[in-house]
Automatic annotation (TrEMBL):
Any single Gene Ontology cellular-component annotation: cytoplasm
UniProt entry tagged with the keyword Cytoplasm: yes
Matches recorded under InterPro entries: AhpD-like, Sestrin
Subcellular compartments: Cytoplasm
Source species, domain of life: Eukaryota
Sample GO molecular function, one term: oxidoreductase activity, acting on peroxide as acceptor
Family: Belongs to the sestrin family.
Protein name: SESN1 protein
GO biological process, one term: positive regulation of macroautophagy
Record keyword Transferase present: no
Entry keyword set: Cytoplasm, Oxidoreductase
Pfam families xrefs: PA26
PANTHER family: P53 REGULATED PA26 NUCLEAR PROTEIN SESTRIN, SESTRIN-1
């Protein structure tokens, strides 16, 4: 990609070699200070008119602010802060972070602080920074579960940066298309920057109609995968593979499908955990000075509140006493024990199991939020996709019946895995590992209780999500779901999986009130992977039917 005149080069900071980072910081510091001195003197810089030079300096200062707070290498954090201080001494206003930590839902003091992580986490942070050039807020929340994070980062790195059927700029553009289906401006912003960094054409960012026809053709599949994957047929696949000069190869299509499902489900995680904007992105910093009370009226109108206010009880919710919450945990554990005893005593007939599935599938349609509360404000990203009115619809609304998808007939383990691995080598293996880690992850704890077997609860969450997508496991008793998942939890699960952009802090706070934040993040990992696998099953089954 051609560098803009006077462009600051940041790549050297990703090096694991301290001397290379030091040299890169020296060059960055000189370039930023030279620009700042020109602007302070009222002169143009880098051959740009003064307003454009100011904007360019602002971008560099926001990047330095992010590095001073979020870089895993202490030398980079300290030197970035020193450069910002020197710019401030020239009389130029420097930015400060908005918000408090990587999540709007989790108090910053309860997340892992950069610089205070243990050796295992530091390795993961350094790996993430070296790969992405940043330590993003998704990583800082996922690191509650290092084993999963390692698998997630490895998979995402392979999909975006390693050898594969699709060119790099296509991969990031597909990420933008997928995230935009859920109006996830957090992910859209990150991938717009990455798309430009790998040489993507800025004109494509003006709207999907400006992208190549081949990518436009993917719009329909993106739409169905995100909202109604059960409608995908082999005819949709045939249309993409046989459209003359704009056709996709099977390998390219598999790569695209995995990227689309990855970013649909990552949008669920982003909204489900209340991920804050990155410090150097729009909404992550401000150049306004703090007011006496540490936030000013313009912050409030833009939705940025003081730290105490953010983490106070949501309006209208009466704080629940710890005794009530403890009872909630005890009651859940008692139900798990009773269900285990019933399992040991008697087994329901196949007919009864099928009836229970149909009942749960039908009931899941009526689980919806009555919230009018505003979810996180996002800028309009609809130009990145078509048909903005197309969203999630339950199966049997308007008399439309969708047949149940039986895992016994088409499963990830027996069918999907080998198809992906055959057409996009190693990716089937990476996805399989990630699914297994999420499904089997346990610390044998529930809130304050230790040595608890949580497998029954984890299976109920996973199977409830698949049930919402019409996917049935013949050997599972769906009667367990109503016993283990209460209404507020079901509302949260359905919102995060089906309409993540509508998730609110109130929903996050109202389920499992006595559980740790790390346990709620664990729930989100199950939601992410179960959703991704459900979308993949429908797409891969259609591809298999096309091939046979």
């Amino acid at each position: 990609m051609e560098e803009r005149e006077g462009e600051v080069r940041w790549d050297g900071l990703c090096s694991r070699d301290a001397a290379a980072r030091d040299a890169a910081l020296e060059t960055i510091g000189q370039a930023v200070l030279r620009r700042a001195e020109s602007i302070a003197a009222g002169a143009a810089a880098d051959g740009l008119p003064l307003p454009a030079a100011r904007d360019r300096l602002g971008e560099a200062l926001a990047r330095l602010l992010m590095l001073s707070k979020r870089c895993p290498f202490p030398d980079v954090r300290e030197k970035s802060e020193a450069i910002l201080s020197r710019v401030q001494e020239l009389g130029i206003r420097i930015p400060r972070p908005l918000g408090h930590g990587p999540s709007r839902f989790i108090p910053e003091k309860e997340t892992i602080q950069v610089g205070k992580e243990d050796a295992t986490m530091h390795t993961l942070f350094a790996e993430s920074f070296a790969t992405l050039g940043r330590l993003d807020n998704v990583t800082l929340v996922m690191v509650f579960h290092p084993q999963y994070l390692e698998s997630f980062l490895k998979t995402q790195h392979y999909l975006l940066q390693m050898d594969g059927p699709l060119p790099l700029h296509y991969r990031h553009y597909i990420g933008i298309m997928a995230a935009a289906r859920h109006q996830c401006s957090y992910l859209v912003n990150l991938h717009v920057n990455d798309f430009l960094h790998v040489g993507g054409d800025p004109k494509w960012l003006n709207g999907l109609e400006n992208a190549p026809q081949k990518l436009q053709n993917l719009g329909e599949l993106n739409k169905m995968l995100a909202h109604r994957p059960w409608l995908i047929t082999k005819e949709h696949i045939e249309q993409l593979l046989k459209t003359e000069e704009n056709s996709w190869s099977l390998a390219e299509l598999i790569h695209a499908v995995v990227l689309l499902t990855h970013y649909h489900s990552l949008a669920s995680f982003t909204f489900g955990c209340g991920i804050s904007p990155e410090i150097d992105c729009e909404g992550g910093h401000t150049f306004r000075p703090p007011s006496v009370s540490n936030y000013c009226i313009c912050d409030i109108t833009n939705g940025y509140h003081g730290v105490d206010e953010i983490h106070a009880s949501p309006a209208g919710i009466i704080p629940v006493s710890s005794t009530e919450s403890v009872c909630e945990v005890e009651a859940l554990m008692e139900k798990m024990k009773q269900l285990q005893e019933c399992r040991d005593e008697e087994e329901a007939s196949q007919e009864e199991m099928a009836t229970r599935f149909e009942r749960e599938k039908r009931e899941s349609m009526f689980v919806c939020s009555s919230e009018d509360e505003e979810s996180a404000a996002t800028r309009d990203v609809s130009r990145h996709f078509e048909d903005t009115s197309y969203g999630y619809k339950d199966f049997s609304r308007h008399g439309m019946h969708v047949p149940t998808f039986r895992v016994q007939d088409y499963s990830w383990e027996d069918h999907g895995y080998s198809l992906v691995n055959r057409l996009y080598p190693d990716v089937g293996q990476l996805l399989d590992e990630k699914f297994h880690i999420a499904y089997n992850l346990t610390y044998n704890t529930m809130a304050m209780h230790k040595d608890v077997d949580t497998s029954m609860l984890r299976r109920a969450i996973w199977n409830y999500i698949h049930c919402m997508f019409g996917i049935r496991y013949d050997d599972y008793d769906y009667g367990e779901i109503n016993q283990l998942l209460d209404r507020s939890f079901k509302v949260y699960i359905k919102t995060v999986v089906c309409t993540p952009e509508k998730t609110t802090k109130r929903m996050y706070d109202s389920f499992w009130r006595q559980f740790e934040h790390s346990e709620k993040v664990h729930v989100n990992l199950l939601l992410v992977e179960a959703r991704m696998q459900a979308e993949l099953l429908y797409a891969l089954r259609a591809i298999t039917r096309y091939m046979t």
